[in-house]
Amino acid sequence: MSAPPAAQTSRAPGAAFIFKKALISALVALVLFSLMIGVRTEAGPQGQLIYWTRFGDLAAMVATVFGGSIVFELLRQWWGPVGTIRVVPPAVQSTLSLAGRLIAPVLLVFTFLVPVIFYNERYILDLGILVLTYVMLGWGLNVVVGLAGLLDLGYVAFYAVGAYSYALLATNFGLSFWICLPLAGILAAFWGVLLGFPVLRLRGDYLAIVTLAFGEIIRLVLLNWQSVTGGPNGVTGIPRPTLFGIPLSAGDDGLAAILGIEYSPTHRIVFLFYIILALALLTNWVTIRLRRLPIGRAWEALREDEVACRALGINTTTTKLTAFATGAMFGGFAGAFFATRQGFISPESFTFHESALVLAIVVLGGMGSQLGVALAALAMIGGFELFRGLDQYRMLVFGMAMVLLMIWRPRGLIGHRAPTVFLKHNQAISSDLVKEGHG
Amino acid sequence: MDYFAQQLINGLVLGSIYGLIAIGYTMVYGIVGMINFAHGDIFMIGGFIALITFLILVSFGLTAVPLILLIVLLVSMAITALYGWTVERIAYRPLRHSFRLAPMLSAIGMSFVLTNFSQVAQGARVKPVPPIITGGYTLHEGAEGFVVQLSNVQIIVVITTVVLLALFTWLVSSTRLGRDMRACEQDQTMASLLGVDVDRTISMTFVIGAALAAVAGMMYLLYYGLVDFFMGFVAGIKAFTAAVLGGIGSLPGAMLGGLLIGLIETLWSAYFSVEYKDVAAFSILIVVLIFLPTGLLGRPEVEKV
Amino acid sequence: MSGDHILSVDRLSMRFGGIVAVNDLSFNAERRKITALIGPNGAGKTTVFNCITGFYKPTSGAMRLVHDDGHAIRLERLNDFRISKLARVARTFQNIRLFPGMTALENLMVAQHNALMRASGLTFLGLIGAPSWRNAEQAAIDLARTWLDRIGLLDRADEAAGNLPYGDQRRLEIARAMCTKPALLCLDEPAAGLNARESAALSELLLSIRTDHGTSILLIEHDMSVVMEISDHVVVMDHGVKIAEGTPQQIRDDPKVIAAYLGTDEEEAIAVMESGT
Asked: Which of A244, A417, B186, C166 could form a disulfide with A429 if both were Cys (CB 3.0 to 4.6 A apart)?
């Protein structure tokens, strides 16, 4: 690859350059952290503010930045400039593409076996359920953001609508999970249409901020409409799902008693695991199916060029609405599942952080790629769990990881698009050509 | 009537603070075409730095309030501006010509970093300060004993906003930097071909936006007497709402939007319910955008076919 | 002129603020004929197109489209996607607007959206894979294949449209418009950026669209060799008004046309004159 001369000279900067850069970084860090880390404030015993200094911490931080900057520069030199095209030998390439094709089935089989392999590891089962919930949310949002190219920053609203629909229907009217599940999806889709109808003619960031505002409105209403939603206390005692009416409980009418096996709380966890797996796979199946139908192609065409869509007689408003409603419906399903799994929900679970997290999963996955979204959900949620030990630093690390991941792979993990129909060769399309919509 | 007048004053003061933050959003949007999600947190950092500077100054025995205010203002503007610069350098510049959602997500990531950085560095509890500026004027005394008051803090907030706004308008309209900024807004490639240092101009935009957010943070501290690590999120969303309401990319629009959001919020709280004040602000945003898709003062987008 | 007109534009005006882009323009396009709209840059040709295809709402005037069965449609009353869907007017764009991240085949499939939507029972029949849907899908693929073959892109059907050479993209855009089965095809500078050989192939393609499919064509073009070779009727615009119309031969000899071109762009004026010799 031929780089411009300027890039070539900056490719191998000397030790002096690295040192200078590190020094500047350290200086910047010193100013940034001087007051925020060097001085700690706290409300004193009488309520007045007191402060004490932490110059040791400050020095440590500045030193870390200095060292980190040197390491970073060295790594960057070793790694080479961004955008280098690495020549991969054909043999390796074909192995890689084989691995790429195998990864989805292997992952699927492994997921099916998780409850068998980790039957005694409650923690891993819970984590698996959590990851699958986000995989499902990611796949749902992928319809809106990845396929139709509409930026939705309030996806959590539909998750909340689904969760509260089930929680309220079940606790007030005693409806079972299996009846409420489709209702929750329909209600969420209904809200999606309700929001979508007036705002979908907005472009790009206007749409983003309106969806964000909508998400906040839903959360605030849930928080303040005490008589219905229980306000900040949320809804408790949400019934657990049953297997064809048979509860998975310890009682005489429970599944364990009927099957004549010893009751274990793990049964229910495994049951929940397979429910969410089935729901996620349903989402995936429907999405793959829809992509090959005219509606799905219209979504992608909309992402590519809205004006051209109109010239071809495609009703862009209804096309956007269906994308919004479909995404919202999956969000609603996931919400109902969340409610039944937790047994308790409150507005706290439906903050903007959730929307941002799901969006990050979609973008990191590589917009539009089902496998990418699944891998990204695994990486993000799994990674987040790995940092559990970091306690209060967890969100800090998470935020940094988000920034670094975006810089590392702005186009996501899976950077190509699979065509929905082909005559001879099913060849992937480089994401450089794929547009991102006006979202 | 008196009650309404009082609420009007309160709303305008709150609106000034939102307006100052909104300018940062609108500037960055105008020049790089993206929502700077970390901007609300920059405002929060500004509030914290103002608080810490104030504490230190007081503990050194400084008592002259105007001097304290001036030093606090300058220090928080300077340090917060550096935060703005750093955020741009780390999270946005590497993604300058990338896929558009990537910088948006790195901005959201940066916002998480800043929020949790303050939480870790300064603790999660709300930090109250005693009223720094006291006193005020009674404008009108009503028949039922209701008084319309204009406190000194309110006067300072409004005057500072007006002065900064004037300064800022001059900066954008009459200086070399302002010209470069407007050029980059129109066409970055062309601007760089004509010798404008685009990277530097964008950095300066973030720096100026952050400095104004720091002022807003300090005003917030003076007015409400407290800061906490989470205040950036809600204030940020509302200020962004203000920027969009006014028409994103338009500076007078940002200020107008800020004032409107401040007024809506205050009047809604006064006459309807405090709980739903944010719902009211967001609902009005949605309604305005439905009828005026580019905001109140935004340039209408002409569709090129 | 005997009048089997597919399109009658009557006193069309379009203003943007104080600027009059099209002023009181009237012309007709005959059925199964190629009508060319020419004029110097900035004459308002694309604005006329945008009015006809529903992207702009004209300030005043009427546009009447009559289908083969005699059904008449007032275009100025339809907007947006309905022009293409109900009036069956298809268009291409001056600066190609394909779906770059989708394959050539997919581009042609998207064009058949409305027909396929009906066939897929608004998605539901498609979702369960009903046989009627499968047949319709296969028919759509076959139609796309036919068009790909005609524009010589059958071998590149599975490549991203954005990766195709410029000339291929132009032809693909025309094929995509044809896949909507239009009554009137509006082409905005289809020969722009093409070399002489590609221009000749384009002329051939357009003539065959007219003759074999019976599709009427309205064409904006700067390439005079293409205009003079294939047009049945030429309308000349300058500064938003019609200054001449007639057969290519008549236009070639019209001093007003030559003056209009000379007033703006010498090269084009010479092209007009030379194409006559």
From this structure: A417
C-alpha distances (whole Å) from B199 to each of A76, A304, B94 are 21, 29, 11
Closest CA to A132 of A299, A260, A280: A280
The pLDDT tens digits for B241-254 are 888 888 888 888 89
Contact (CB, 8 A) for A303 and A323: no
Average pLDDT, chain C: 85
Chain A residues with CB within 8 Å of chain C CB: 286, 289-290, 293-295, 297-298, 300-301, 303-305, 307-316, 322, 417, 419-427, 429-431, 433-435
**Could you tell me how far CA C126 lies from the centroid of its own chain?**
32
The Cβ of residue B178 has, within 10 Å, a number of other Cβ atoms equal to 18
Name C160's bridge partners: C103
- Summary count for chain C: helices (H), strands (E): 12, 10
Cα dihedral across residues B141, B142, B145, B146: positive or negative: negative
Taking the C-alpha atoms of residue B81 and residue B104, their distance in angstroms, rounded to an integer, is: 20
Confidence at residue C269, expressed as pLDDT on a 0 to 100 scale: 59
User: Taking CA B87 as the corner, what is the angle to CA B83 and CA B88, rounded to the nearest 5 degrees?
Assistant: 120
Residues with Cβ within 8 Å of residue A59, at least 6 apart in sequence = none
* pLDDT reported for residue C271: 65
Q: What is the DSSP string of C225-248?
A: HHHHHH-SEEEEEETTEEEEEE-H
- Predicted confidence at residue A7, as pLDDT, reads 41
Taking the C-alpha atoms of residue A339 and residue A344, their distance in angstroms, rounded to an integer, is 6
Determine contact: C215 vs chain B, CB below 8 A.
Answer: no
Greatest Cα-to-Cα distance within chain A, rounded to the nearest angstrom: 80
- Residue B122 confidence (pLDDT) above 80: yes
Q: Please report the sign of the dihedral spanned by the C-alpha atoms of residue A68, residue A73, residue A76, residue A77.
A: negative
**Exposed / middle / buried, residue B166 (Cβ in 10 Å: 0-12, 13-18, 19+):** exposed
Terminal CA-to-CA distance of chain C, rounded, Å? 26
The sign of the dihedral angle between the CA atoms of A393, A395, A397, A403 is negative
Q: Contact, C217 vs C32, CB < 8 A?
A: no
To the nearest whole angstrom, how far is the Cα of C196 from the nearest Cα of chain A?
27
Can you tell me the ipTM of this complex?
0.87
State the angle between helix axes of C131-150 and C104-111 in degrees (0 to 180), rounded to the nearest 10. 120
Mean model confidence pLDDT for chain B: 87
Contact in structure between C38 and C237 (CB atoms under 8 Å): yes
Q: DSSP H helical segments within A45-176, as ranges?
A: 55-79, 90-117, 122-142, 156-173
Buried-state track B126-161, b at ≥16 Cβ within 10 A, e below 16:
ebebeebbeeeeeeeeeeeeeebbbbbbbebbbebb
Q: What's the pTM value of the predicted model, to 2 decimals?
A: 0.86
Alpha-carbon distance A336 to nearest alpha carbon in chain B (angstroms): 25
| A111-146 residue pLDDT tens | 888 888 887 888 888 899 999 999 999 999 999 998
Q: Does residue A145 contact residue A151 with C-beta atoms inside 8 Å?
A: yes
| C81, C103, C123 ranked by CB distance to A314: nearest | C81
**Does C130 contact A at CB distance below 8 Å?**
no
DSSP string, A13-55: --HHHHHHHHHHHHHHHHHHHHHHTTEEEEE-TTS-EEEEE-H
DSSP category for residue A248: -
Q: What is the Cα–Cα distance from C174 to C111, expressed in whole angstroms?
A: 11
Instruction: Say if residue A278 is exposed, middle or buried (CB neighbours under 10 Å; 0-12, 13-18, 19+).
Output: exposed
Taken in order C106, C112, C113, C116, is the CA torsion positive or negative? Answer: negative
SS3 C157: coil
Beta strands C89-91 and C184-188, pairing class = parallel
Q: Residue B266 corresponds to which tokens in the numbers above?
A: 């205050």
What is the C-alpha to C-alpha distance for residues C209 and C205, in angstroms, rounded to an integer? Answer: 6
